[in-house]
């Protein structure tokens, strides 16, 4: 790969090993960033479109967090802390906005570019490879999710819902959530045959949003359901962000980080391979 | 060849020995023959190249060599396997079988490095519909890692060349088909490629734009750019190609310079006779002795002869009155008809 102009920006020993395990070239950060550049060029004209995704969690915060919060008062988290209901819900909405932004972009938008716009057919005729495309589009989608959640964090700050300096780390946490969902979204999209298949995306995202300890703690569920919820990715995203924003940090957040990182990596590998299969016939 | 002595040949041009001669001379064993590869000036080199889609064989064991600075053409009917071959050469489609070297490299392992030096005009335009005309060139140049300032200058020049300067800031979507084609061609040149792959470059262009493109391609060639193109158009192949292959059903039916192919596979002239509908076939037998060969097409007879006017006179002397009589020079179309039994352009 080092002879490849314009080459990747230095590949570490561990990724060299990875390159041998995977029968495809590793993405180069520089080449992948060109897809982000392309998307910025497109959205320069339509940046209002992007902003629309920011309002959804805000409306939830106002109606459920503040409205229902007035009735509920406080809630006791699974780690035993008593939180104001709004403080409890806000980080969950922040994590969900990272998921929503990433999923929206990595499913609908990528499907359009893949099947209709034939964008990647053109891109792959240049030095970019399928894994560069997968990495680039995943980066863009996760940036979109992270943009929503970061803006949302600013609103939370203004409303006095942030309780700790740890909250700064909630921003990279949302990048990680975006990464996990964007990569898996891309991989899932590569298997989609028609727009009807996107019903499945809704079917996965909506229940996750409603049931992953977004609006109430895990203790509400019977044991079996608890386990099921703990298997879902958004649960880990929400718990991670909630721990950071409220400052109730313990070692369990490492488990959440690991879960999301592994999920994203698998998604990226599968997505890269699928793109190569679909496009390099 | 056989009368020349091997020793003389060895002294003058050892590399021009054919495989058979080398075998006969016992100079090379099987392994050495298999180990051969492209010479330094062969930018495209394929041996036994095949492409299968499932059970279907689209490209069936072809050999090609394209030298630096050459304009090389693939001529063939729909489904011949031209685009499949072009995509393999473009390092975006893995070969099923055989060996392929592009710019001396293996597309299986050096895809990005190869593609960095290629310009590609695919058969169907795949412009970025969400961007403007100019942005299409700018971002495409970026994919090649070219600095922005440099791309901007090149983009202006290319837009001027394809006469799209006044549409530079319009979105691609509302452009006419021919304009999109011209933009695709401009885009393929943004990285100043050494090897330009053009899959039916002028399909959809008006005559003026076609001639302008031929002119530009000719100038690129003079600057040393190697051209590989596919076409359905005889005039395009004759104008542009130094050498071409006639492809049919995934195989190469013939190879050579346009004039060479015409000389080998056709006569100097062709007499075209058009009789009343349905009568063409019935006249064929009676005229067989006037030509080296007769082709019966649904709407006319083609008499292959070196003296078209003489044959035409003879037809009239036999009391036949065709609706139209035309004597013309042989073209690649005739070569194709001879080789495949089918017309190239339906
Ligand atoms: N991705 C694919 N999957 C299955 N079959 C394919 C695929 N691409 C091409 N083929 C088949 O391979 C054959 C050769 O196609 P190809 O596009 O190479 O022909 P062509 O010479 O370019 O024809 P045309 O002049 O119409 O462009 C055709 O029968 C086509 O149906
Ligand atoms: Mg074709």
Draw up the topology in text.
The complex is a heterodimer of chains A (281) and B (346).
Chain A: H1 13-21, H2 29-43, H3 47-72, E1 74-76, E2 82-84, H4 85-116, H5 119-123, H6 130-158, H7 170-189, H8 199-211, H9 223-231, H10 233-246, H11 252-279
Antiparallel strand pairs in A: 1-2
Helix pairs in contact in A: 2-6, 3-4, 3-6, 4-6, 4-7, 4-10, 6-7, 6-11, 7-10, 7-11, 10-11
Chain B: H1 6-12, H2 19-25, H3 30-34, E1 42-53, E2 56-67, E3 71-75, H4 82-89, E4 97-102, H5 107-115, E5 118-121, H6 133-143, H7 148-161, H8 177-188, E6 195-199, H9 207-222, E7 226-231, H10 234-240, E8 243-248, E9 251-256, H11 258-265, E10 269-274, H12 280-287, E11 293-296, E12 301-305, H13 308-317, E13 324-329, H14 332-340
Helix pairs in contact in B: 6-7, 11-14
Bound molecules: adenosine-5'-triphosphate and magnesium ion.
Strand order of the largest sheet of chain A: 1-2
Tell me the fraction of residues in β-strands of chain B, as a range: 15-25%
CATH fold-level topology of the largest domain in chain B = Rossmann fold
Strand content of chain A: under 5%
Bound molecules: adenosine-5'-triphosphate, magnesium ion
Kindly provide the name of the CATH class of the largest domain in chain B. Answer: Alpha Beta
Order of helices and strands of chain B: HHHEEEHEHEHHHEHEHEEHEHEEHEH
Structural class of chain A: mainly alpha
Shape of chain B: globular
Note the gap between the termini of chain B: 41 Å
By DSSP (H or I, 4+ residues per run), the number of helices of chain B equals 14
Gross CATH architecture of the largest domain in chain B: 3-Layer(aba) Sandwich
Number of strands of chain A: 2
Q: Characterize the largest beta sheet of chain A: strand count, sense, and whether it forms a barrel.
A: 2 strands, antiparallel
